[in-house]
């Protein structure tokens, strides 16, 4: 029934099903894999042989089981031969990392922008940093499989075009094309390249590399100057009709509330983000600068009244947003990340309190809330995670959703 | 590479991929199917032969194309041999339908409850109605493939247990077990049975039978006494960790707003649902009865001030909820259904206006909003759609999400 033309795709799907299984349960034997994924032992043996040869998998020493007969050989992802690159195209600089297949950082660099408004120069700097990473001594033994980029703005992931990055002042920048041009002649020339919004990329880091791949639905709520989310449903990123899904910063939490940069009033973005806190503490007539932000962090730390009130109010509104995400998605976990995390419990505790109050009122257990596994590296490592994510999920045109 | 043990599953997946393709593009030839789904022509021919024999597909007369040579035979789903059953376990009665594979109604019955509080009697009545439908003359030529039930409450779809149906007063009712028991010895004994929340089922009717299967994400917003949603993402129902995803009636639209039945304040449910409108128009001290609801519909129709204000206020809050669903999901369409639709434009127009105002403020095109394809039959037909949905998506244990 299955003929030659179909076999290539099916083989690729089955190969990557084995790799994904070993991501969530490292140390499985060929026999255990056959049982779990429902393929025959001979098929498994052939696929595992290929994956060992190509650097995806490695055999461990069999443990001593006390049982008679040949011991099963545990398999796991090989961290020593293949690499993934990721970049965080940040607000004041880029951060680039190389990881192995397990998400362990092999090398990283910080690259401050000379002029954040100059998108061409920022992208050239980032591309150069990625090429240098690939040439790094730490990576000499590794082959790079792919590259993923997280961008703090609205991006069309299909084309790699950045529509708008409000806090960088970039509009309609063809990030993919500029990076590809910069890679010509380097070791990265022609490699698979993936581009996504920063919250989406950070969500993929949690999905792929946190050791908790069964957390689904998973929401990564990114709170920096503004508010956005990366949402994983059924093991895939929720992107929506035009790639804008997860823009939960523009859900309305307070009708006729403060004006939002989007033109609406009372959006989560205008009530919870760092910009909202600065507007609240210092008035909207002040320009927002890195110095102003530093002032907010220092004054909140020092217990200044205006700063503390602004942070607490934002935290309480965070609790409303957490409730709303809980009701809509019934997530297995909500991860709170982004620059606002530097405010720590001053910001998060009021949010958790409001959420708990709602949960108690409804006599339901509140959803799990946690911080990111990868701290300030979440987005750069998320780039590497995105590359692994898409490489391990080949296009399934003949198969059901 | 592909061995005997794998073939059975792969064959089932490929068979149903063909059926799904013909659902969205009826009239394709074997050659066009081979091209589109990426299988060889010989594989397609074998699978199509089986599906013709079993009653899933039928061949049409080839059209006159003017081209030389043998004309391609158009294929489509066969509406004449297989049937699906659906039930809407409503508030005052049940509605049962039989449809063919295309979702066309073959027979239907309304079954008023003697005592809505008596869950055992209501379920026995519904089961009896389904058995009678299957024996109906109109169905004599059809084989029933499966049965789907929509319940106005919170249901665990994996077990078929209803946790709570607030407007029926039912708690912890094992709907699946009671129906299965009633089917023993009838034509429905042992057939696949699926149970879901009513908004989820209505969403599946839109996905499967509306002729718009590419509408994704799709949100079916159900507004009756309360508010809930069925959400389709990547061709699948979003169910969440515990099956509660889509409970958007308990997202908060107005902090410290009116008390909600869930214990929170300011939920969409307490601002938009028919119960909220009655509380607003007549005060919360009045009991809500079918007569009270009829009074609301009549007075809104007649232009009574209190009723009109309540309906308009609910409609404006509907607009806020529509905005929030738009931002979170970037849906291809939001379908507004449920009993509140009887209020017509008095209710929906203010909602659309608020949504349009937000869209204009943000300089974005508003998402598509429409009414259900199946009117008051949405949930019963949705039951049949759910049966087709799950039968056409065999478990994919060896395949990626």
TrEMBL record, chains A, B:
It holds the Pfam family HTH_24. It comes from the Bacteria. PROSITE patterns: ROK (PS01125). Coiled coil: none annotated. Gene3D superfamilies: 3.30.420.40, Winged helix-like DNA-binding domain superfamily/Winged helix DNA-binding domain (1.10.10.10). Belongs to the ROK (NagC/XylR) family. This is ROK family protein. The lineage of its organism: Bacteria, Pseudomonadati, Pseudomonadota, Betaproteobacteria, Burkholderiales.
